[in-house]
Design goal:
The protein has 3 domains: 310 residues, polyphosphate kinase like (2-Layer Sandwich), CATH 3.30.1840; 169 residues, 2-Layer Sandwich (Endonuclease, Chain A); 183 residues, Endonuclease Chain A (Endonuclease, Chain A). It is 38% helix and 21% strand. Strands 14, 18, 19, 20, 21, 23, 24, 25, 26 and 27 form a 10-stranded mixed sheet that branches.
Length: 704
Amino acid sequence: MARRLTLRQYLYCVSIKRNGSDWFINRELSWLAFNHRVLQEASHPSNPVIERIRFLGIFSNNLDEFFRVRVANLQRVALVGNKATTTLGFDVKETLAKVSDRVIALQAEYNHAFEIAVADLAKDNIRFVDETELNDEQQAFAGNYFRRNIRTHLVPIMIGKDVAFPDLLDGSLYLSVGLLLSHKKGSKMQYAIIEVPRHVPRFLVLPSDGSEQIVAFIEDIIRLELPRIFGLFQPEAVVAHAIKVTRDAEIDMDDDLSRSLMEKMRRGVARRRQGDFVRFLYDREMPAAMLKMLRDNLSLAESENVIPGGRYHNKKDLMDFPNLGRVDLMYKRLEVLGHPQFVRKSSLLDQISKRDILMHYPYHRFGQVVDILREAAIDPSVQSIKINLYRLARNSQVINALMNASRNGKAVQVVIELSARFDEKHNIEVSNHLQQAGAAVEFGVSGLKVHSKLFLITRHRNRKIERIAHIGTGNFHEEKAKVFCDFAFLTSDPQITGEVDRLFDFFSNNYERPVFRNLIVSPYSTRRKFSQLIQREMDHAKAGRPARIILKLNNLVDADMIRKLYAASNAGVRINLIIRGICSLVPGVKGMSENIQVRSVIGRYLDHARILVFANDGNPDYYLSSADWMTRNLDRRVEVSVPIWDPLLQSDIATYLDMQLQDTVKARRVDKRMTNTFILSKGGKEPLNSQEAMHAFHAARLLT
């Protein structure tokens, strides 16, 4: 047996013996491994073909954000010098090179998966066509559609010495057009750029004889019309190839304190469109001369992320691929359930007063949370509603309920995070609507993102003040709640609700740090408290008592917390990690992490909940949290973790975790090689899909 060291001794020893590559998995490569798991779902024949098409869209959307944020950040760090390293100790320039190689490999795998999915659609009588495959009727239909819906939105830009090259927008799709023109001295090539309109649906369903459904990308409809668009030039030939740029998405917030935060954010969002290029994606069939013209005009060096792709880019739009009425080619619908304590009840607030409630999306209907806010908006006994918002759906019913509450005379306090990346503009608009309705809108804590998922309803009941709190793992977002697996804890326990109220006071008056005895709040106590709980499991293990930790997180990156888990493993603590996304911890290394197993579950839903369980010698502690174990979540954001004390709710969480740990359909093994090997059932055991099993569990609850 290995000699047991104290935590401090162990961390000191390993810090001497191991460098970053031994100690951690590269964060960026681990993220690409996560997106590869998404791509596996797009390739897996067990998934219905339309769902596979949509997974291809998710992969593409994820990769866009990766370049806009992570690659852009690495490129900025690389400017510091040749020896720049990441926080985990990896050489930045070497990381960028590995990222480029891995992305090119994934792009090739992606293109192959797309070709197979398109072929499988064809087997089911759904056929993609390009502009060269249309019959006369389809050409006439496409031409009419083009004139009615597309033509007026096209602005072809001719490339020449007297015309500035257009400012390509992040995420937009463009056609680089080549016109072969006749001259007295021979033919020459004239180039143009056309932006494919964003607001036009990406897919056009064309008329057919009824035996099959015909679908075309909208850029192919534009290609069909190019000879007429450029008819003035009477070109001998016209060619068009898709291009797309990705820009640095970091908002450059200046230090002008005289300008309001909202105005700063508006200016930052406007500047984003001029961010540096971090990726240039082009059709690999593009002629070399056209590619050189583009690189010269965009000042793209050989070393930058210039990535060859297929004929079609912006495949994130595949997320919205139409179902075409083919429910047989989609997941079998799972009924969205009411919570047993809310079904057929006239007052949801009264039900929460009786006992704690645990909502689990998307199995439970998120609309019940909206119903709670709607009830609070009209209940005469309700005095106030306080809520913090991070990401919201368009036309949010949550916002409508809050505006209604304010108009009904309730004191509504809304803490909204303006700097939620990519949602800044929407959050500014929401802030304005709430203020116009009379709500008090605040923008959180200076220097800290407010990432918690809270609301607090205060009412007079039986001549007493009663508070009802919501503490969740996911945002108040109706659309995301249909596909994100999250928990929402609802309670009237004054030990919890009083501290939630104290936190909202802190949002308004953050010059004084509050004290929390039950809630665990970043940036003040999350790192310290969970480190103590790890140490307690180590103490149990050293005393010969059973010791176990189960963590379900989206991302595990923080170096210090990873080292503490290594120390716990070395002390004999059994550790199960369920990490959906990035995992920089290296499991299964003798003398370091041999007692740690890591798995990732990717399925029809996105498992987003953060859950932490510490065995505590048979008296386990359960926590739900808004925080992943990333340095930003532990030290630079307001995050909330809540203890779950009710034995029934603990049992529900334990059931969920057990299903995740027993999954033999959608679970992959996470290791340093990042091969994403599926974990399969053994010994003739029936395969278990944890997400489908969880729906069956909740459905059975309604029948008891």
